[in-house]
Amino acid sequence: MKRHPLRATAAALTGLVLAACGTSSSGGAPASSSTAAARGGSLFVLTTSSSVTLDPAKSQNLAITTLGLIYRRLTTWDIAPGRPPTVVPDLATDTGTASDGGRTWTYHLKDGLQYADGTPITAADVRYGVERSFAAELSGGLSYHKTLLAGGTAYKGPYTGQDLPAIETPDARTIVFHLATAYGDWPWIVSMPAFAPVPRAKDTSPTSYATHPAASGPYQVDSYHQGSALVLTRNPHWDARTDPVRTGGPTRSPSSSARTARSWPSASSRTRVTTGPPSGPASCRPPSSPRCPGTRGPSSAW
Asked: The whole model's pTM is what?
């Protein structure tokens, strides 16, 4: 079976440190290195970008980056210091079952998965999320799967009224992928943004879906001001028991430019992701803290 450089990319990212720390409910300093980080507080994610692409079809975010706060995929990455990264189940019950000599991969969704509005996540939603990534209106995202799926090079997306025959959903929890050739690293491919579920009924306009996407991860979009801040709040229907790598510790996640995120926040109800050029090196700790306790690497808080 063929191998893909995505595995090497995961290995290269093992040494990265997540820009996140836990804070106490009273806004005090984080816990010591010998204790677990307190739940609650705010997670700041600093970025040099002036915008954040929230549509999974257009995103080039890997499994351990910002989009993982909002979306889950069929698989994700487990990254920890001192050992190689591994691909692990996310929405799926396992990393996939290969058949037909590696040309067919079958996945089953976990029980009880829900979006932030309480509606169930289905295999058809995952299929539709993958199919819309082929549309010309949503170009620019990671595209390895487009040439790997049988018939993918000729497919133009669901807005033409056509489904992709290479993807089957025999029931609400099962999705089957038929590849053009045997591919042993397919479990890594389905960790990409295009494999996040998208309900067809919510996708009324390809260009506006990202403003209020259907959240399957620990957080949902509260507000987004391009070039300034993306504010996320908890997804009340995210179940940590089904998620092997995201801890969902912070109560809010504000993402903004380093210029706006100068003070370390106390506990609150949202998360901010800051966008825009930083005024200095990004840091994962408040000014008085020597380190970030309770993290396992880039995937630990996502």
From this structure: 0.75
